[in-house]
Specification:
This protein is an alpha+beta fold. It is built from 32 helices and 10 strands. An 8-stranded antiparallel beta sheet has the order 5-6-8-7-9-4-3-10, covered by helices on one side. Strands 1-2 form a two-stranded antiparallel sheet. A hairpin with a 3-residue loop joins β3 and β4.
């Protein structure tokens, strides 16, 4: 606990004077620490406000203290202003390893093609950079992407480009692992031989990248990978072999489906779940007899995934098994998934099973019935629209809108009155439906809806209203004039920067009227940032890396170490909510087998928040072992919802802030099921 992290040097030290050690006076140490804090605070403030100040960063990036340089490099990358590139590139040659690695990572966040050549030169030139920086430089090139990065990756894998590290294996492994980010520029031909590599890491990385790329050339080899000795690699192959991919590779779907059915008997639950996910894309009811028994699998996530697959595959045996599960005594997650899946498989059987759910006093039961009703066919005026709980209405309306395309007349008729619903989630979904019609007649109701969103604790309803208004505006010159006259000209500057950012991205005229989204008014003073720097950046780990314990009813505790040095604002926000007991008695509202468990929504339906948003603090920590990540609906939209990954998820790296890691209780994670109650989250 008292060991300092790898990215910070101690502010206490012994000075060597004339070969003899002498202790630095306490007053001098305090002065040094305060000096560093004074340099860090404005950098944290600028990063939080997303305000790139060239002079500030120019000074901070050459500061004597490596912690200041590292923090400034990460801050510049997170702000995302390309003007930072020329300031960060020189740090690739910084004498401090942690600064070099942070600079490479920051260039990946900036995604500026101007950084490609400097990154390549550091990877191939002398003096050679360390392995950590080399790996981050490779990732940065993958994030920047483009033909130049693809050519470099192909050259490394094909032996035409020589990396200058004494041991190039770690950087080469990262090339394999990150190639999927390059899309059409990925070196597929050079990746293929590594699928047979004897080194597990190389084989895994190649399979992962080729599976994510859906490369037809890899399909035959993926069939062989289903027999790999490593369970995780087998799961990657199983997950990749969807029907659309198999058909693109001109393989026989029936043959591949049989191999996937065989994979559902794999000893690894991760492989079984992956095979089920792919099998559901085959829409073949002849597969169901072998899958129905999986509704009784011992691991919680497998029956849930089996139920979902059976709903998509259909057939009489599937319907029978799903009806039994929906009315059985299994977990809520299994019963709920089985009910909705039954709506896919057999409408009559669903209606019979749903009666008990619709009569429940628990809103989540009625929401499941509403979702199933929408899937089975809601009719002209489904009963869930009148439910007393907005979460039920939103669930049913969302499922209905997912089921039909375009401006469906019945769906529109149901959605229009809901633009004035008291529940913001209902209004958001309703406006998304109304946007499909782009009918000028809906403009007054949409304007009223937008004007009423000021009291909402989340911005989705406002954004949905704006999207619908903009859709009307785009229907022609007359509509454009009307929207500008009846809405835009009378609108005031939104206080939420997310709404102003939306305007910058989608509606230039609104952005011109409302002003820029940056700098963001964070509500913090410079002293607040000094306190954050003192608590999380220069403090010992016993302070900067506090531990919390998540206690789930009937499942057991999970201990988390929070990563203050890597995400100080995110950790501070999380701890404030913990101290308010915000998470106590919440339910795990989202559980995806072998993927994530998610909490932080007091509503329990995915829309909930205490209000406001914090900025992302993307950092080099990876979603390998279970870690704590901030859930988002877009960049810089996090607040209270967070998740823990249940298995390695490389595609989440560099997109969602990692701000904690599981240090005890990993065995509890696979047992968590949707709807389980979190008794408490408390500091340890």
């Amino acid at each position: 606990m008292n060991k300092r992290g790898p990215f910070r040097r101690p502010l206490w030290a012994l000075c060597l004077c004339g070969g003899l050690g002498s202790v630095v006076p306490r007053s001098s140490l305090a002065a040094q620490e305060q000096s560093v804090i004074e340099q860090l605070a404005p950098v944290l403030a600028a990063e939080d406000a997303r305000d790139f100040q060239p002079d500030l960063f120019r000074r901070a990036l050459v500061a004597p203290d490596s912690l200041v340089r590292r923090t400034a490099a990460l801050g510049a990358g997170r702000i995302g202003d390309l003007g930072a590139t020329e300031l960060v590139v020189p740090l690739l040659s910084d004498p401090d390893t942690t600064v070099r690695a942070a600079a490479a990572f920051a260039l990946g966040l900036l995604r500026d093609t101007a950084a490609i050549q400097p990154l390549v030169e550091r990877l191939t030139g002398l003096p050679a950079i360390d392995a950590i920086t080399a790996a981050e430089a490779v990732t940065a090139l993958a994030k920047i992407g483009g033909p130049a990065s693809g050519e470099f990756f192909g050259g490394v894998l094909g032996g035409k480009v020589v990396l200058s590290q004494d041991d190039p294996a770690p950087a080469t492994l990262r090339v394999l692992a990150e190639s999927w980010r390059l899309g059409a520029d990925a070196p597929v031909t050079e990746l293929l031989p590594f699928m047979d590599d004897t080194a597990t890491g190389s084989r895994l990385s190649a399979v992962y990248s080729l599976g994510r790329l859906h490369a037809p050339e890899a399909a035959n080899r993926l069939l062989l990978v289903l027999r790999d000795q490593e369970a995780y690699i087998r799961s990657l192959a199983a997950r990749a072999l969807t029907r659309s991919y198999v058909e693109s590779a001109k393989l026989a779907p029936s043959t591949v489906a049989k191999l996937l059915v065989r994979a559902t008997d794999d000893p690894s639950a991760q492989v079984r779940v992956a095979a089920l996910r792919s099998l559901e894309t085959y829409k073949d009811s002849t597969l169901t007899p072998k899958l129905v028994p999986m509704l009784d699998d011992a691991l919680a996530g497998v029956p849930v995934q089996a139920a979902e697959a059976l709903g998509e595959l259909g057939g009489a045996e599937a319907a029978k098994g799903l009806a039994r599960a929906a009315l059985g005594k299994g977990t809520f997650a299994l019963r709920r998934t089985a009910l909705v899946a039954l709506a896919h498989a057999d409408r009559a059987a669903f209606e019979q099973a749903a009666a008990r759910w619709r009569a429940s006093a628990d809103w989540s039961d009625r929401a499941a019935a509403a979702e199933g009703s929408a899937v089975a066919g809601p009719g002209q005026s489904p009963g869930f629209l009148a439910d007393r709980d907005g979460r039920v209405v939103a669930a049913g309306l969302q499922a209905w809108s997912d089921r039909v395309e375009g401006p469906d007349a019945s769906l529109l008729a149901a959605a229009r009155p809901l633009l004035a619903h008291r529940d913001a989630a209902v209004r958001s979904v309703a406006a998304d439906v109304v946007a499909r019609a782009a009918d000028p007649g809906d403009l007054p109701a949409l304007v009223r809806m937008y004007q009423a969103t000021g009291r909402d604790s989340f911005p989705e309803a406002a954004l949905s209203a704006l999207n619908a208004i903009l859709a009307i505006r785009r229907t022609g010159p007359a509509a454009e004039t009307r929207v500008d006259r009846e809405f835009l000209q009378g609108s005031t500057r939104p206080g939420d920067y997310l709404i102003r950012r939306w305007a910058e991205e989608k509606w230039p005229e609104a952005a011109a009227r409302w002003g820029p989204s940056r700098p963001i008014a964070t509500g913090r003073s410079l002293q607040d940032y000094r306190d954050l720097a003192r608590r999380y950046l220069v403090a010992p780990d016993s302070v900067a890396r506090p531990h919390v314990v998540i206690d789930t009813q009937g499942r057991g505790p999970i201990e988390i170490e929070l990563l203050g040095p890597d995400a100080p604002l995110t950790v501070d926000n999380f701890l404030r909510l913990v101290d308010r007991r915000f998470f106590d008695r919440n339910r795990w509202h989202r559980v995806v087998p072998t993927f994530v468990v998610q909490d932080g929504d007091p509503r329990g339906d995915g829309f909930g928040s205490p209000g406001g948003a914090i900025r992302d603090e993307i950092n080099p920590n990876r979603y390998e072992a279970p870690v704590l990540g901030m859930a988002l609906s877009g960049p810089d939209t996090g607040m209270s919802q967070w998740f823990i990954n249940l298995s390695a998820q490389p595609h989440l790296d560099g997109t969602y802030t990692v701000f904690g890691k599981v240090v005890n209780g990993t065995g509890t994670l696979p047992r968590i099921s949707q709807g389980d109650v979190i008794r408490t989250i408390a500091r340890k």
